[in-house]
Amino acid sequence: MAAYAASVSLMNLMEQIENHPRLSISVDENQIESLREKIGFFLKFIETNTRGAINNEAQVLLSQIASSAYSAEDVIKSHVFDQTHAMEDAKRKVTIIKPTNSMPLLCCLKEAVTTESDPLHQINDGSISLLDLHTVIDDMYSIKKKVMEFKDDLQPAYSMPVTTTTSSSTPFTSITGKSTMVGFEVELHELLERLTGLQSNLQIIPIVGMGGIGKTTLAKYAYENSLIMRPFYIRRWVTVSQKYDARGLLLQLLSEQSSEMDSKTDEQLGDVLYTRLCGRKYLIVIDDIWSVEAWEKLKRFFPNDKNGSRIVVTTRILDVANDFGSSCLRVNFLDDGKSWKLFCEKAFGDQSGCPSELEDTGKEIVKKCKGLPLSISVIGGLLGRSHKTQEYWKIISKDLISNLNREQDENCSSILSLSYTYLPPHLKPCFLFMGFFPEDDKIHVSTLIKLWVAEGFIKPNKAQSLEDIAIGHFNDLIDMNLILRYSSEANGRVAYCKIHDLLRDLCIRVGHSEKFICMMKDVPKGIRVGILSERHFILDERIPRFIIHSDHMFFQSIPYSSTSLLWNLQTLILNNIVDAPSEIWEMRQLRHLNILKLYLPHPPQSRKQQKKDILLPNLQTLKNVINFKWSEEVCKSVPNVTKLNLVV
């Protein structure tokens, strides 16, 4: 939720400034202390009293908390921005990100939440007039009084167990382990038979069913089955989606990205694919196809050598499935028995099953899912990590029935919305952030963790790094089936993840309603959306925390004298050669430096080794550093590096 994210982000910002050797003297300590007290109060209120369905009065209070926290952050950042400019004697504004012709300037914006009584954001001629911090603190004080009055009449809310520890040896590994195929054993058997049948001609097998019904899950189980992996010489999986890119699909099928391939036309890429498949038994899965046009652009590149090759296609649209000219494998809703079996697996895992005192309420909840596996999995994941008491489950059931009665429920969206409503506050911003990524995008988990940290979503504790806390949040969302595993490393770590289309739609819908995110339309697939998800479209007033270089975005050269102005930059990923200036040692918030080739100067000489002489105390990743002498002085300057790569 916006209120939690804004409050934690402000708290992190104040701590960063206090620990900065120069910026700490540019803010008033009394004002910062007053802010810290009020933000601490707000966070306690949010964490304790906003779980589950809340009334309109609470919604207004949360909106005001978010607005005031965002405003305080704006005032502080604006002040620090002016101070650092003065320190560097730089009067001009710095351009940080330059748009290319192929992408919008910003792919997504996180908007401040404002209310009619909120005087803190005034837009005049395209600029923001920020009032002083004293005004913001006064506004927070009035909100605090309203919250205290509201709490007097508030019933205590249930809360979910909070993840506080994560084993550093097994990050990105969900505690529930590998799931099993539940409810579609008959369909899986039929699919395996059609894949391994004696027909030598190329066979196309369409799988059809509504969103969330389990088409992709069914295809994936077959694709990864050991009986299937052995006989097929080549196996490829591509996801099409509503807005597809034929060239991108061809490159996925080739599993190759190189300058040689980039220079080829689509027709040439298709010819390369045809040549590689020719004479070999292959299995292709084309997931989530929405139109025959996408198939028409690809089908001529799949040779029919009468060697038992197969193509599996999943689609929500029956007309599209019928156009393939072969019998469809229909995936239907689960019956009551299979629905209950799936729910118990998601809620209780390897435990003995549902306790008898919860069974009646549990079956009532499952019945409302109408046999849709996605809804059953999500509600099962939610209840599996909540209080397993009759009282709590009846609250969930009552809220679910209320939502179903209030609106026409297509795709069981009320059940999915309920899963968000009952998330603990610390997971809500992380979940909503998933809406930033393009539909069906394959998301690198390590990058996602860094983004959550850079966005300021993670509330710190003394026992763990922010990244370890974020890993715990990720595992929780995996266990609740709100984020899906896409691929894992050999050690079991989740390397890439995805989010179901219906859940992504929920993220965008809720994010818009809470004014947490604002998505631009027609964002090209492949752009790493969210990396500059600032609340306001004022580029020269904003210092990014996360910069990534890709085909669609690049880091414009910054004058060396201005590099230290990026005081809040945490993650820098560049696919080019960088000769870093000495001012890089003043960027104390840096956590991850991953550059193709980095020429790094030695740190400046310190007078005495004091706490504040630790130049980059947060740096954890330092990769591809060329011809750098690693000395004792350097070790003292970066004491928390865990990933280091030096190139001689």
Provide the fold topology.
Elements: H1 2-18, H2 29-49, H3 56-88, E1 97-98, E2 108-109, E3 122-124, E4 127-129, H4 133-152, H5 185-196, E5 203-208, H6 215-223, H7 226-229, E6 234-241, H8 246-254, H9 259-262, H10 266-277, E7 282-289, H11 292-296, E8 310-315, H12 318-322, E9 329-330, H13 336-348, H14 356-368, H15 373-384, H16 390-406, H17 413-421, H18 428-433, E10 443-444, H19 445-455, H20 466-479, E11 484-488, E12 494-498, H21 501-513, E13 518-519, E14 546-548, E15 554-555, E16 571-579, E17 592-599, E18 621-626, H22 632-637, E19 643-647
Parallel strand pairs: 5-8, 5-9, 6-7, 7-8, 14-16, 16-17, 17-18, 18-19
Antiparallel strand pairs: 1-15, 2-13, 3-4, 10-12, 11-12
| Uncertain residue segments | 90-130, 157-179, 522-543, 549-561
Strand content: 5-15%
Rg over C-alpha atoms, rounded to the nearest angstrom: 27 Å
Number-wise, the strands total: 19
- The rough form would be described as globular
Give the proportion of residues in helices.
40-55%
Number of helices: 22
Structural class: alpha/beta
Instruction: Please outline the major beta sheet.
Output: 5 strands, parallel
Rounded mean pLDDT is 77
Distance between the termini: 47 Å
Could you give the order of strands across the largest sheet? 6-7-8-5-9
